[in-house]
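Submission sheet (multi-component)
Chains listed below:
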Amino acid sequence: MPELTFDLQHTDTATRARVGEITTSHGVIQTPIFMPVGTVATVKAVHQRELVTDVKAQIILGNTYHLYLRPGLDILRAAGGLHGFNGWTRPILTDSGGYQVFSLANTRKITEDGCTFRSHLDGSKHHFTPENVMDTQRVIGADIVMAFDECPPWPCTEKYATDSLALTERWLGRCIKRFDETEPLYGHYQSLFPIVQGSTDPTLRRRAAEHIASLGRAGNAIGGLSVGEPAEAMYDMTELVCEILPTAKPRYLMGVGTPANILESIARGVDMFDCVLPTRNARHGILYTTQGVMNITNAKWKADFAPLDAELGGYASTFYSKSYVRHLFHSQELLGPQIASIHNLTFYLWLVGEARRRILDGTFKGWKDEMVVKLMQRL
RNA sequence: GGGGGCAUCGCAUAGCGGCAAUUGCGGGGGACUGUAAAUCCCCUCCUUCGGGUUCAAAGGUUCGAGUCCUUUUGCCCCCA
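Outcome: structure written.
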């Protein structure tokens, strides 16, 4: 069965940053890349057309747990998978529900076999196993599907981290077996990414990364970070794991992060990112700009008629003033979150695109060091 | 002209003898990292954090009054 391919085109000399191209059945992804999160078949508050024309998203996410609950597999199958359902014709990646094992800790129970969830929608019981999660992701039909893992909380005991990793690895074996025994349903190919866990324990992480490197999958992921640990721990784990994972395969750091997190992780050899921050924070009035972070609801923007971010460019960021967008938020007008979401995603895609250009022309390190300071500034 | 009702922190409200005083809105600020999040949290009389001054105004009853009584002021309703 064919899988996605990764063409590593350039590696930075001053850092471990890389430039490459992932080719999938639904098109090419230029790395490093940020993937907007579209949990329930929509990147919240943003049209698919805007994702293409304004944001310039190359790939978006979906979530197995959420899509399984609603609209449900019958509808997704009948629609021809998620691509057919939401009309997104470019690549899609689905998370397996592993993150929900973490985030819905109050309403689920983990066993050797899998994880039983209480639906957050109606309280009904649902049992997820590595096997049925692979089957479900066949039905959803994303180009990249994630292994079903447990994302341990932070902090956790050494024993918890060890046992959790062992379970994740047993589950991974079952994911791979089932995935490799089954076929895509819609005529395009799919690739399964395994996920390195191991909390913030270097020994566990190293062992996990070596195991996953040995599997030879089309791409590999780093999970279980950005769950509350200090940024330094996240960077250390990322660096350690990237040194072990194969160079010739894309590396995906799950759930990360802030603009600074992304640049620092690119510098350590990560190729792919996703995070809810640009969209969730957009809906809460937090805007990431080329000058720093701004809370557009703050009183100080009341009469500031300058664009959101003149330097960034793009329609949403240059056409609308801070004053106007603040007004929209204070009026609870839906256009506020829409503009903010498009703006933030445009910024995130600009950020990784600029990183790519800088890596290629050899100016990445200096630029990155400058930007991580600048981008965290509160305006 | 006669009768009745109501005045509480920007607005709207709770309050029925022990109250710096309820709740909502409005206002100010914060959090959010593989989305149970258009959500959640904090502040919103003054303060040198000890306390001080409050419920239209003034008087009174009471150990104690936003709450009861009297007068005044303002607003609302009904009948002429």
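Remark: The CA atoms of residues 364 and 370 of chain A lie 10 Å apart.
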